[in-house]
């Protein structure tokens, strides 16, 4: 392996840029298509309080740790870990932490770009009036025609390239002229657009019903499953385990108040999720409910149908999906950055060349996911497409493993003096809580999350008649009331079972266990089927 290029790869020029970049990294599609559903199901305002507690007591310490590692070392996660390992005189095996995080970021970016391609296409579909007068079969057919028709996969590939070019063009401009300038404009712009759309939804919808779903306290709906849902969502929605926080920490100015900024980011992410939930339920029909829908069936089937009933619907639909594009675009920019930073530190290559090479690799890897929904849809290993396996390995193994290793390394391998220096000035109470959370709480909780995610994701594969060796035990677990983690993000709906009925859902089971309008086929040919809800589980976009 070449000697790492020991030159700092860039930094922000304004202390507030870290906040805007971090907001762009944490506000993802889960805020739109997952959080509102969970809040309405698990007690409204009570779930929000529970979610905030999970953020502050479990995931916030890990966010601070990742950012502090980058800020202390002034490098990306790989070289930052290398420096800490040398300082603490620990085994070089700990270098796997940085490398696995880069791999996780690469895989996440590869299929995040596929989601971005769908959202980008919908901006134009909405503006051109393709949803005018559309019902459920028509909206499902539009989604199926874009994503899963093997005869039109080249069109989908075109949207994929278009979206990636938007990301790579900004990244190639550099940390200051590209990343900083873009995020300082786009992230506030996206928040303003969300406020405008929220005002429109409140004006034409029923904001009282939305408040009852999202903000009103319903303690009777709280259960053990509510805590599980809050933990899963808190862990998977913040971009942890991919080196994003480390690279953003390394870019901070000396005047950035890191811990205070991260706390503000967490609160902003929650506020955006609440606004999204209020907006969605305010415009919902049939008594202010989308009947438990979430994931792609909510965003790309039900939402366009509902929005088409509003005045100037073409403009409204285009604006909504422009917001979705901006959210996925800022997420992609942040996830790309640790990969580019690692490549530059490893090879010493200029930024433009690094972005070009990484972008080409991401495009090729993304094709594996893209084609899994159409041309390769019937090519399954163990009952799952290649995309599903990439997603399962990333969400169930890589990201939890990186989080656990970081917690163990900082909690047990660093001296108290070194960890205190890395953390910086902090109240004694915060430092004490941080230390014991990293040592004991976080490794146990994240290990449980990863095991649950993997076990029940594998169990979900068995619902399609898969006869793989693992099916018997997970299937038995599900039959006894076990549930797939609530961090499911799906294209449409699961197909009906052999009796023609969808499985029942008891709350935190994924939408793949529920029936929605998009589960119907738009035709008799396989190429005309909308993507299925259990095709996507991941919650980190």
UniProtKB/TrEMBL annotation:
It is a multi-pass membrane protein. Keywords: Membrane, Transmembrane, Transmembrane helix, Transport. Residues 482-541 are annotated as: Disordered. Residues 522-532 have a biased composition (Basic and acidic residues). The chain crosses the membrane at residues 18-36, 48-73, 94-125, 153-170, 182-203, 230-250, 262-283, 319-343, 355-377, 389-409, 429-451. It is found in: Membrane. PROSITE patterns: NA_NEUROTRAN_SYMP_3. It holds the Pfam family SNF. InterPro entries: Na/ntran_symport (IPR000175), SNS_sf (IPR037272), YocR/YhdH-like (IPR047218). One of its GO terms (cellular component) is membrane. NCBIfam families: Na_transp. PANTHER family: TRANSPORTER. This is Sodium-dependent transporter.
